[in-house]
Amino acid sequence: MQKLLIEGEHPLEGKVVVSGAKNSAVALMPAALLTDQKVVLENVPDISDVGWMFEIMKQMGTSIRWQRRGAVEIKAGSRVIPVVPHELAKRLRASSLFLGPLLARYGKARVSFPGGCEIGSRPIDLHMKGLRELGAKIWVEHGYIMAETEGLRGEEIYLDFPSVGATENLMMAATLARGMTIIYNAAKEPEVVDLANLLIMMGAKVKGAGTDVIRIEGVDSLSGTQHTIIPDRIEAGTFLWAAMACGGDIVVEDVIPKHVEAVLRKLEEAGAKLHVGGDSIHLSAKGRPRAIQVKTLPYPGFPTDLQPVLVAVMMKGEGTSIINERVFDNRFGHVDELKRFGGLIKSDGRTAVITGRPRLSAAPVTASDLRMGAALVVAALGAEGVTEIEGLQYIYRGYERFEQKLAALGAKARIVGIDAAV
Ligand code: EPZ
Q: What is the pLDDT of residues 250-260, one digit of tens each?
C-alpha cells in the first residue's frame, strides 16, 4: 500500500505550474463524439479520471491516443458502440457526460449509473429531465440509463439548479438537435465556457456560455478541431491555501486569475499578501491564517471543491471560522479524518464551525475522496511531525504529480510503499 509521508511545519517557497483542468478534460473528451473528424485536446492532465475517460472511449470503439504528453487525439467513427459499461462508469461521475453526445450523434446510449466521489447524493435527474425535453426516451434497466431518440429537437429548458454536468450534457446534445435550445439557469463555471468554446470551434452555434442563459442553435454536423483546455482553478486554489496552512512565499503559474476571484478575496481576508499577474498569482503568508466565514456557491461564488481544503487550513485559524456548504447536501465527510490532527470542528450537513488552534499534530490518516485527500495533505503541511496519508488513489484522480509539485515547493513530502496492485 502506497503512503504519502509529509513532515509538517515547513514553509512553501518557489513556483508551481498549474496543470490543465480536470473538470474541463472530462467534459471535453466526450464532446469529441459529436463529430467523425479528429479532435485534439491540449494541456490535458495525466490524472486517473482522464485515464478512465480514455478507457471508456477506447472500449466504445473511438480511436483515441496520446499524441504526446498532454495532447489527446480522438476520432469517433460510425462504428462506435454507444455503451458505458458498469465496470468503468462506476469509476467516475463524469461518465454521465456521455449521454448527451451519444444521443445527439448515434441516437442512443446505454450508460451505467455513474459513480465518483462519495459526496452527498449526486442524482442526475436534471440531466435526464432535460434530455427528455429535447426528445429523448430515457428509462432505467438493470442499473443502466437507457436512452434513445429518433432525432433531438430544440427546446426551452429550465434547470432547477445550475448543475455543471446537466448544463454540459444538454449543451452537447443541443448542438445537433433540430432548432433552437435555450438553457435557463445554466451553470456559469469556467469549465462550461471551455466546453462551449470547443463546441464553437467544432462549428456549433452556442451563445451565452458563462451567463445563466445559453442558446444553442442546432446544426447538421460538427467538424474536428484542436483546443487547449483551461488551467485547473481548483488545483491553483489548493496550492494557494496550502501556503496558508504552513506559511510561505509561492508563485502559482499558468492560472487564469479571474477563475479564482472569490478564492483570492477569501485568501486576503485570511491574511494573505497577493500580487496578481496576467497568468500568475504571487502569495506570501506567515503565521496563522485569520479566521473567516465562507459560503460555497455555484460559480462565481467560492467553489465547493475547495471547501475541504479550507476546513483544513482553518483548523489553525486565529479565531472561529464558519463554513457553509451550499452546493452539496452532505460534503463534510472529511471532518472526522481532519479531527485526527487535533482540529476542533463541529459540523452538521451544511455547516462546519472550526475553532482554530496554534498547533496541530501529525497523524496517520486515510483519504476516501479526491478533495478530502487534498485537505489531508494541506492539514499535514501545517501539523507538527510526520503525517502518513493512505488512499492516494483518490488524490491521483485530480492532481497531476501532486507530491512532486509539493516537494519542488520545499514540502518534506515523499511516497513510500510498493505500488498497490490496481
Ligand atoms: C461538477 O460536478 C464537478 N465535477 C464537481 O467537482 C463540482 O463539485 C460540481 O460540479 C459543483 O461545482 C465535474 O465537473 C466532473 P452539479 P457535477 O451537477 O456536475 C445537484 C471535483 O472534486 N444535482 O453542479 O456533478 C447535485 O446533487 C468534483 O472535481 C441534482 O440534484 O455537479 C449537487 O447538490 C466534485 N440533480 C448540485 O446539484 C442533477 O441532475 C451540484 O451538482 C445534477 C446535480
A: 999 999 999 99
Whether residues 41 and 163 fall in one domain: yes
> How many structural domains is the chain composed of?
2
How many CB atoms are closer than 10 A to CB 76? Answer: 26
Q: What's the CA angle centered on 122, arms 371 and 208, to 5 degrees?
A: 85
pLDDT at 355: 98
Which residue in this structure is represented by grid cell 469529441? Answer: 32
Catalytic residue list: 117
One domain for residues 51 and 134: yes
Does 422 map to a domain?
A: no
178 shares its domain with 272: no
Q: Looking at this protein, which amino acid is placed at residue 364?
A: P
Per-residue model confidence (pLDDT) at position 422 = 43
Cell of 198: 470547443
User: Which residue minimizes the CA distance to atom 26 of ligand 1?
Assistant: 122
- DSSP string over 203-233: T-EEE-BTBSEEEEE--S----EEEEPPB-H
- Residue pair 188/159 in contact (Cβ under 8 Å)? The answer is no
Q: Using one digit for the tens of pLDDT, what is the confidence trace for 299-353?
A: 999 999 999 999 999 999 999 999 999 999 889 999 999 999 999 999 998 999 9
Closest protein CA for atom 13 of ligand 1: 23
Domain membership of residue 115 (yes or no) is yes
Last residue of a domain, one of 188, 205, 228: 228
* Distance, CA of 92 to CA of 205 (rounded, Å): 29
- Do 235 and 305 fall within a single domain? yes
User: Same structural domain for residues 199 and 268?
Assistant: no
Burial of 201 (0-12, 13-18, 19+ CB in 10 A): middle
Question: Which of 191, 207, 228 marks a domain boundary?
Answer: 228
How distant, in Å, are the alpha carbons of 31, 55, 215, 325 from that of 104?
Answer: 10, 21, 17, 35
Q: Which long-range contacts (CB under 8 A, 24 or more apart) does 358-364 make?
A: 358/288, 358/316, 359/316, 359/383, 359/384, 360/8, 360/315, 360/316, 360/384, 361/385, 362/6, 362/7, 362/8, 362/386, 362/387, 363/387, 364/340, 364/388, 364/390
Query: What residue ranges line ligand 1, CB within 6 angstroms?
Result: 22-23, 26, 93-94, 117, 120, 122-127, 161, 163-166, 187, 191, 304-305, 327-329, 370-371, 398
Domain ranges, residue 353: 3-19+231-416
Look up residue 175 and give its DSSP letter: T
Ligand 1 pocket, mutate which of 53, 118, 122 (most atoms under 8 A from CB): 122
Q: Tell me the one-letter amino acid at 41.
A: L
Residue 345, domain CATH: 3.65.10.10
CA distance 200 to 206: 6
